[in-house]
Amino acid sequence: MNPSFTGSLLTRNQTQWFNPAAFSMPAARTWGNLGRGTLRGPDLQTVDLSLIKNTPLTERVALQFRAEFFNALNHTNFGPPNPIVFAGNSISPSAGLITTTATTSRQIQLGLKVIY
Fold first, then answer.
1. DSSP 3-state assignment of 28?
2. Any idea what the Cα angle at residue 82 is, between residues 81 and 85, rounded to 5°?
3. How far from chain centre, in Å, is Cα 44?
4. Please, which residues bridge with residue 108 across strands?
5. CA dist 40 to 17, 78, 80, Å?
6. Sign, Cα dihedral of 58, 61, 65, 66
7. Longest Cα pair distance anywhere in the chain, in angstroms?
8. What pLDDT does residue 2 have?
9. Tens digits of per-residue pLDDT, 22-73?
10. How many other C-beta atoms are found inside a 10 Å radius of the C-beta of residue 96?
11. 8, 27, 17: which is closest to 85 by C-alpha?
């Protein structure tokens, strides 16, 4: 960590999840003072939903209709930010940049099942 940094470490936007100015390059052949796993990426939020309807056809046979919704609210879940802060001796322009998503968009699956 940069001891002279003041302000918020996390900016929490897609183009720069954390402020790279909060870090300083450690001296050659030494480790930095920040622990592993200190920075966290964006939260993961998803809602899955299933609707099932059983319809009896005979005494021993039934038809089941299933509708399954994955990420039903279609919430965008961003992937982890780029953890590389330094490129050579200067701050990398892609430090903290989020370029991926962690989940897919809404998916709907319909199915019929014969139960006997």
1. coil
2. 125
3. 5
4. 69
5. 10, 12, 8
6. positive
7. 78
8. 86
9. 998 888 888 888 888 888 889 999 999 999 999 999 999 999 999 999 999 9
10. 24
11. 17
